[in-house]
Design goal:
By secondary structure, the chain is of the alpha/beta class. The protein is built from 7 helices and 19 strands.
Length: 340
């Protein structure tokens, strides 16, 4: 049965994702495809190092559900040929109905190599367009591989219309932008904002505005709740469907918190009122290098966050009814979710 809702697939145990957006009513997908397929921060196999291998080198503790871009394309073709949504790991083969290429867009959130993994990205057809944050785009340009590399702009109160983030090569019903903290010079705690209008969905929801959009917020290191306030001012309105935010806290010694974790994520979820909270960037990767002894990782759950709030100010119980309306999930390696 053909779905009219987005599908999110976790390609590894860390923070590589496939976002599949169904074409709105009245639009004909190319060559009979079902979705506009967006590949986010792909790191499928191999090592990643920042600065130098002796400083920090990491690798996946659990092999990714797909090991190569060719394998991802193969399984994507199978899913679309079948005309149904299945877990990529269980898709059947039907080589007669494939559309090449099936990745429509690559999106990169950060210039760090666990998000911008050069060996994985160089496996991708050069003609597939890339949208990236500024520093990542500059680095990708230097590889002389991709023919189309665009820069993701910031979404702010200077322009509250999500439709203006529908830049080339995006179709007009999809927008991509970035939410940032101004004082964060490295924009580590920023978010990508994927907005989309699926047409008839908004009539069903009774939003009163057919130009309104749904949104998926992707923030692998976490974003402060106050930086999401701007979404409530958006015109046309934006309704947050899913927040992809880490559960676990990761500290660099006592110097800084790299991943903000569920304590912050709970505040961010309340600010944007997401229907789904989905964990990301939580893999306990293996590694080596002089940085490794300084990293501190704490695994946390939604219950940990609620209990901490109750201890601190006694108000966790007051918020519990709100949390029950949100689905707090952790998708496994290779698992897919239909976002209803």
């Amino acid at each position: 049965m053909k779905t009219r809702r987005p599908v999110l697939t976790h390609l590894n145990a860390d923070t590589s994702w496939l976002l599949q957006l169904p074409y709105p009513d009245g639009l004909s997908p190319p060559l009979g495809g079902l979705f506009y397929n967006i590949l986010i921060d792909p790191w499928l196999s191999g090592l990643q190092s920042d600065f130098a291998s002796w400083f920090s080198t990491q690798w996946h503790a659990l092999p990714s559900s797909v090991q190569t871009i060719a394998e991802l394309n193969e399984r994507l073709s199978d899913v679309e040929a079948l005309g149904s949504v299945k877990s990529l790991s269980n898709a059947e083969d039907d080589s007669t109905k494939r559309r090449p290429p099936v990745i429509d867009l690559v999106v990169i959130s950060h210039e760090f190599t666990d998000h911008m993994h050069q060996p994985t990205l160089l496996e991708i057809d050069p003609d597939i367009p890339v949208l990236a944050t500024q520093k990542a785009a500059d680095s990708i340009h230097s590889w002389n591989h991709f023919t189309s590399i665009g820069v993701v702009n910031h979404f702010s109160d200077k322009d509250l219309d999500w439709r203006h983030t529908s830049i080339s090569p995006l179709p007009e019903w999809i927008g991509i932008s970035r939410l940032v903290t101004d004082w964060d010079a490295m924009y580590l705690h920023s978010a990508l904002l994927f907005t989309f209008n699926l047409g008839s969905e908004y009539k069903k929801q009774g939003t009163g505005d057919e130009d309104s959009a749904e949104a998926i917020i992707y923030t692998p290191h976490g974003i402060l709740a106050n930086d999401l306030k701007v979404l409530s001012q958006a015109a046309p309105p934006i309704r947050t469907l899913a927040l992809l935010h880490d559960y676990n806290e990761v500290d660099l010694s006592i110097l800084t918190r790299l991943n903000l974790g569920i304590h912050n994520g709970l505040k961010a979820q309340r600010m944007c009122n997401a229907r789904y909270y989905i964990g990301t960037h939580d893999e306990a990767k293996q590694g080596k290098g002089i940085l490794l002894p300084f990293l501190r990782r704490k695994e946390l759950t939604i219950q940990d966050a609620l209990e901490k709030e109750q201890v601190e100010n006694g108000n966790a119980a007051n918020h519990f009814s709100h949390e029950r309306q949100t689905k707090f999930l952790a998708l496994g390696n290779g698992e897919s979710l239909l976002l209803e």
